[in-house]
Amino acid sequence: MTDGNITSLETEQKISQGLTEQTFWLNMGPQHPATHGVLRVVLHLDGERVVEAEPVIGYIHRGHERMGETRGYAQFIPNNSRMDYLAGLIYNHAYCAAVEKLAGIDVPPRAEYIRCITSELNRLASHLLWLGAYLMDLGAFTPFLYIWEEREKINDILNHVTGSRLTYAYNRFGGVHKDVDDDFISWTRAYVKRQRKRFKMYNRLVTGNVIFQNRTVGVGAITPEQALNYGLTGPCLRACGVEYDIRKKEPYAVYSEVDFDIPTGSNGDAFDRYSVRLAEMEQSLRIIEQCLDRLPGGAYINDNVPQYLAPDSGDVFFAFESPRGETNIFMVSDGSRIPYRMHWKTPSYSNLSILAEIARGQFIADVVSIMGSFDLVIPEIDK
Amino acid sequence: MKAVIKYFRDIIVGGWSLVLGYTVTLSEFFKPIITVQYPRVKLEMDPAYRGHIELVKLPGEDGHFCLACGTCERACPSNVIKIQGVKPKAGAGKVGIMYLIDFSRCSLCGLCVDVCPVDALRHSMEYDLAFTSRWDNVIDLVARFNEPQAQERG
Ligand code: SF4
Ligand code: SF4
């Protein structure tokens, strides 16, 4: 051992003594691959342990609500898909349903069924994307490629009927802008069949995997009380064992007519959120199948909707289930062609708020796992 | 003793889960390749695809149908469209002579196509559009319509 090494040993000791006393700040994001968007989490660290985690939002605020208050009702349709870019059709569907409720527009039954089918396909695509991206956060690259193959199938199906792959703008007031054809129906049926088989593959590849289990079981556990206090919704809430799904509790569209279950977990940890989403995908397949079986004929859009809508003064509240949880729309009309007030309450915002509490005392690597399991979509938090 | 049993059980169960995973990845080796070598290979576009808008060109028809009424201009949420029309002779209806779109602002929502009273608009099939200047995004649809390679679709 040389002299140099002895001094370095001393320095090391000094440093390690210093480290036990010192904590430091680390910025995770706004450009971090694990935040999936421009979210910044300020981590107050003691070594590898998190003392405090503070999410900072607002990096992708585009003022969608304000935009909605400066343009006509129909002109806000393209904005919907850009709020939550993974659930464009669901937001589209809900916005149109809210305006229809406000203006008292009838929707033909065929349109309602088409909306349900496309919304559920969109929910599946969103969950599949989450699954792939989450596993990649945890360091597994292969499942990502396999899972996105199915997502590609959904995108092809939706492209065939809506004409685009991510920002759909497919729903219109009083229906949808294009009818579905036989190709769509047969492709969707084939997809449902194929997806059922693929779940077995996911289970073999992912669910039982020892690394995945170690990274998720017991990580970021949330109690039902905590979840309710922070206003969590969607799979994050259901993973805690609370059975709450807007599609069942306040059914809109044709969700009251189809038969499906609300999958719940028990421990509220990252693994339960994973299993709940997988189970939810199977329920979505069931909904799609039933809707396809019952798809009625007739018109796909109500032709009597004026181009420039001017609903009577009043307000409307509409709640719907997006892949991330309960989303609410509140709109006030003053009788003009432009909404007087538009407000959206999006689920990722409340889901993120609990991060500060449950990340305390965890390792940095677990914070990535926890945040990933929330399925955050940052543009939807900021709007 | 319990700890020892648990230790070995974890190794066996964990190891077996990895073996199961590898059987999946191994079987994928023998499946057909689904990746497309873009841009050397291109996929067939779905006829429903919504590209930027263009004026409808029908087989057997000379001109476009745009009346320069401006309905699409007003319906567009992003002020993409600017139209100029002239009356070819006194008493005749207007005809669009210039139809500018700024594609960089277009959200491809299709509201303009929906509202056109004479169905003069449709979505084109163009997709890989990338320009070096933002002014290249400004396209005159009437000029594009008159180009010989403009597609005729029924
Ligand atoms: S494209 Fe249609 S809506 Fe637009 S100006 Fe021409 S005729 Fe009017
Ligand atoms: S597709 Fe939408 S954004 Fe584009 S020009 Fe038409 S109305 Fe405007």
Strand content of chain B: 5-15%
The CATH class name of the largest domain in chain A reads Mainly Alpha
According to CATH, the fold-level topology of the domain at 53-153 in chain B is Alpha-Beta Plaits
- Give the end-to-end Cα distance of chain B, rounded to a whole number of Å: 79 Å
**CATH architecture assignment name of the domain at 53-153 in chain B:** 2-Layer Sandwich
Hey, roughly how much beta strand do the residues of chain A contain?
A: 5-15%
Q: Residue-averaged pLDDT of chain A, rounded?
A: 85
Descriptive account of the structure:
By secondary structure, chain A is α+β, with helices and mostly antiparallel strands. Chain A has 2 domains: 9-56, no CATH class; 64-382, Cytochrome-c3 Hydrogenase, chain B (Orthogonal Bundle), CATH 1.10.645. Chain A contains 16 helices and 8 strands. In chain A, the strands form 3 sheets. Chain A has a 3-stranded antiparallel β-sheet. A 3-stranded antiparallel β-sheet of chain A has the order 6-7-8. In chain A, a hairpin with a 7-residue loop joins strand 7 and strand 8 (341-345). Chain B is an alpha+beta fold. Chain B has a domain at 53-153: Alpha-Beta Plaits, CATH 3.30.70.3270. Chain B is built from 4 helices and 5 strands, in the order H-E-H-E-E-H-E-E-H. Chain B has helices at 2-29, 71-75, 111-115, 141-146, and strands at 53-55, 81-86, 95-102, 121-123, 138-140. In chain B, the strands form 2 sheets. In chain B, strands 2-3-5 form a 3-stranded antiparallel β-sheet. In chain B, strands 1-4 form a two-stranded antiparallel sheet. The radius of gyration of chain B is 28 Å and the shape is elongated. The mean pLDDT of chain B is 83. Classes of the chains: A alpha+beta (383), B alpha+beta (154). The A-B interface holds A 71, 74-79, 82, 142, 146, 149, 156, 159-164, 167, 169, 172, 177-178, 201, 204-206, 208-210, 213, 307 and B 10, 13-15, 17-18, 20-21, 23-25, 28, 34, 46, 48-50, 75-78, 107-111, 114-115, 123. One iron/sulfur cluster (SF4) binds next to helix 2 of chain B.
